[in-house]
Amino acid sequence: MKSIIIIFVISLVTLKLSAQDYNNAVRVSTGEYWGVSYKRLFNQKNGAMGRFQVNNKGAQLTGLRLFHTPAFPATSSQWFFAYGYGVHFAYRTKIDSRNLFTPFAPPIVNTGHFFSPGVDGYLSLEYRFLKVPFVLSADYMPNFEFFGPNFFRLNMNNFTVSAAFTF
Questions:
Q1: Which of 1, 45, 62, 108 is the most exposed place for a label (fewest CB within 10 A)?
Q2: HSE of 82 in the Cβ direction (CA atoms, 13 Å)?
Q3: Structural domains of the chain, with CATH
């Protein structure tokens, strides 16, 4: 009888743990950019994400490699920290440039058609709901672009808040 109870408890625990995880997520994000993305987790720690973002200055298509880890493992199994790297290709119609040596001067506004590849970083804190297939996250994506009006450009202001449907 004791072994049946132990097997029953173990099966309930593993069933509960599998309900918390997901393999795919379709996300909608808002912030500096509005966007949609598709996230695929290969296992508990590794994944990838494709992201398309737009704002009034242009559009950006990004591919990221992601790594997940529990954010607060001692207190909650619902918070996760994600980090990663990737590349993007951007089309810009307006770029605000600043001189690093005169940081308080007004930005120089460049208008035109600019195509810029770049390298991205990714940091995220996400909350996974237990009984509903949704995830909320706060994301930060700094990036470095090539071939704009100043040839090199560092973007440090890409903060977004995302809601995702998981399946």
A1: 1
A2: 28
A3: 23-166 (2.40.160.20)
